[in-house]
Amino acid sequence: MKVTKICCIGAGYVGGPTMAVIAQKCPHIQVTVVDLNEQRIKDWNDPNTDNIPIYEPGLSDVVAEARGRNLFFSTDVEKAIDEAEAIFISVNTPTKTYGKGKGMAADLKYIELCARQIAKVAKSNKIVVEKSTLPVRTAEAIKSILDNTGNGVQFQILSNPEFLAEGTAVTDLLNPDRILIGGDTTPEGYTAINALVDVYANWVSKDKILTTNVWSSELSKLTANAFLAQRISSINAMSELCEKTGADVSEVARAIGMDSRIGSKFLKASVGFGGSCFQKDILNLVYIAKSYGLNEVADYWEQVIIMNDYQKRRFSNKIVQTLYNTVADKKITFLGWAFKKDTNDTRESAAIYVADDLINEQAKISVYDPKVLKNKILSDLDYLDTRKSSENADAVLSFENPYEACEGAHAIAILTEWDEFTKYDWQKIYDSMQKPAFIFDGRNILNAKELKSIGFIYNSIGS
Ligand code: UDX
Ligand code: UDX
What we know:
The strands form 3 sheets. A 6-stranded parallel sheet has the order 3-2-1-4-5-6, with helices on both faces. With 463 residues, it is α/β, with parallel strands linked by helices. 45% of the residues lie in helices and 14% in strands. Bound molecules: uridine-5'-diphosphate-xylopyranose (2 copies). Residues 9-15, 35-37, 40, 90-93, 110, 113-114, 132-133, 276-277 line the site of one uridine-5'-diphosphate-xylopyranose (UDX).
């Protein structure tokens, strides 16, 4: 079996870039990305590819090359499903906000809607690929919906989790560490797996394409995210101990990272991890473990989240304590709002929680982020539902110029590790601020020595 047409449901941070790269690397395959959100599709079709709705370095060039050739963005979901041999499901799976598993389990309502729609429309055999991160054994539920509501055609469900990180999506997709494809261990399952292997083999060497059973693939994705997040919580736990003992967490990270068994990546102490995946996937893992009665396993992983929440709170507490135990009516400037550099994504960004704490203390927050707009900042705060929307609007100002954002501030907090922050004229910023002028470097990216010599009172994480 050969895949000649792909449909992807969900034109988000995962679906959009992944399909753009598949289309670029497989000009012989027609790739149609569909989404219920008309505005999002319109934005993906913007004649100027710099205006596509997701900011990722290099992505607009990939879209410019493939769009209109074999890459299409559309709201006609049914037509795209009908035509494709392989349908990727790449819709969001947020943490449930209601009912059983509230605050823990993944909300699969969008996944189920997709499955029902595929079942309704499909008139020929299809491969259905789970691209979204899902609880283990979701494939089984999808299969049951497809088989029981479909038109008698055959469906093969594959799990093909995406490991790209935002901000480096295009390079991650072009040079993945591995591609993981899980499928049924039946002849039909192997045929489907091989059809998807052939798609990736257009640019990924075969030894990097791993095939497993469906459950291993689903669980591997949750496990990978749990391990990555665990490293951050582990180093963040050490960061507080470093602050108390006079050790420097960057030195500790370097020293342990040179041990090849540990490795040097993902050891940056920070104000806490954010992003759409880590928290959601670990909560989901915890929920799954509990549902099998594995309480020790659940508690073990839950601690990663507890530590991360603590680290965010610890950062805001430190700001308040250092500013003489009051930030009421003080201007505190946030440099960065995105959850990491090189993305306009703010989901679960530490900045949101730190701002929320400081607004509770009646601080005035000024924000500058190179890629995040004001209404996003306010909607992130409103989403927490801590106070009235008008109160958030009164407490937060957003700037398009970092120097203006810092003018008259009592303190600056670095929430995102954008490269440009390291290149600012810090003397000029210092001169424009209230004295004493404080910096809280939540990402440890600035030159502490230089800032201290200017006169800043500099605080890092973990030293
Ligand atoms: C992805 C994955 O799917 C999720 O499992 C992973 O854990 C995080 O990343 P992401 O691409 O970041 O989600 O989500 P998002 O940017 O919200 O995009 C999802 C898109 O699906 C949205 O544009 C939404 O409009 C669309 N959608 C959702 C549909 O088209 N149909 C639906 O039924 C639901
Ligand atoms: C993550 C996984 O890396 C990716 O494989 C998966 O598909 C989706 O989730 P993403 O959330 O996009 O990707 O970004 P990532 O680079 O993993 O960063 C997550 C958060 O951890 C960010 O807030 C980042 O700033 C923080 N982080 C990362 C640290 O605080 N310290 C580190 O050393 C590394």
